[in-house]
Amino acid sequence: MQNGFGENDWALILGASSGFGEATALELARCGLHIFGIHLDRRGTLPHVQEVIQGVESTGRNALFINMNAADEQKRREALANLKSQVGDGFVRVMLHSLAFGTLKPMIAETDDEQINPTQMNMTLDVMAHSLIYWVQDLNRNGLLRNGSRIFAMTSLGSELATKSYGAVSAAKSALESHIRQLALELAPLGVTANAIRAGVTETPSLQKIPGHENLIEAALKKNPSGRLTKPADVARTIAVLSHPNTYWMTGNTINVDGGEMIVGTK
């Protein structure tokens, strides 16, 4: 198989129905992996999920997609039991954490309703950061991680820079990068790597939910030396390359995939 993958090897994609998760699912399927996709969609977007599934299956790979809350402990364990029954002698070669579900409220406002509250803060951190740890723990307990497995998590420049109403997500991205470093440390003896992928500004459904996202797009277009925004396919192709067995010595990093956007100060 391509990229050194086995016939029965799988990719687990958290957030598989759109944006980076969708693009990566399709790219890794083209590279030879079966796709286990976790997504949370309402009725209106379910037809697109079927399109993603058909795209995976058109490559000759299997697609097993589950519509669920990725932060639900019981559903997570049921989903992984389902996956374990499917893999045979294979294992999870690639896991991508690409969950974008959080509260976009300022930390300071005139009223309690206008500013973020503890429940919203905790939910954002749990879904967009801490859930990475819990999925990896259960993958490991189920014997689905082995020497050669690759773990990736999608972060953003919000881990370093402040943006209006992005505070909780920014905290989650910072925690996510910290979690990746800790996983890299603890999984290294098993031959499992963990890296964060920091994409440039990308026009995804999650970006469009950020207040003032138009300004982010405009600024990125002005400063990116490559002359355009990052695309989900750019990130997906990078993840596919980094999933190769020969990248075994790369772990614990935050890797920019942005056409040079983040090396430019102002323009």
Which residue ranges are poorly predicted, with pLDDT under 50 across at least 5 consecutive positions?
Answer: none
The structural domain count equals 1
CATH architectural designation: 3-Layer(aba) Sandwich
Count, helices: 8
As for the CATH topology, it is: Rossmann fold
Break the fold down into its secondary structure elements and pairings:
Layout: E1 10-14, H1 19-30, E2 34-39, H2 46-57, E3 63-67, H3 73-87, E4 92-97, H4 118-141, E5 150-155, H5 167-187, E6 193-199, H6 205-208, H7 213-223, H8 232-242, E7 254-257
Parallel strand pairs: 1-2, 1-4, 2-3, 4-5, 5-6, 6-7
Short description:
The protein has 267 residues and is an alpha/beta fold.
Task: Note down, in words, how this protein is organized.
The protein has 267 residues and is an alpha/beta fold. The chain has one domain: 3-Layer(aba) Sandwich (Rossmann fold), CATH 3.40.50. The protein has helices at 19-30, 46-57, 73-87, 118-141, 167-187, 205-208, 213-223, 232-242, and strands at residues 10-14, 34-39, 63-67, 92-97, 150-155, 193-199, 254-257. Strands 3-2-1-4-5-6-7 form a seven-stranded parallel beta sheet, sandwiched between helices. Strand 5 (150-155), helix 5 and strand 6 (193-199) form a beta-alpha-beta unit. The protein is globular, with a radius of gyration of 18 Å. It starts with 9 loop residues before the first strand and ends in a 10-residue tail after the last strand.
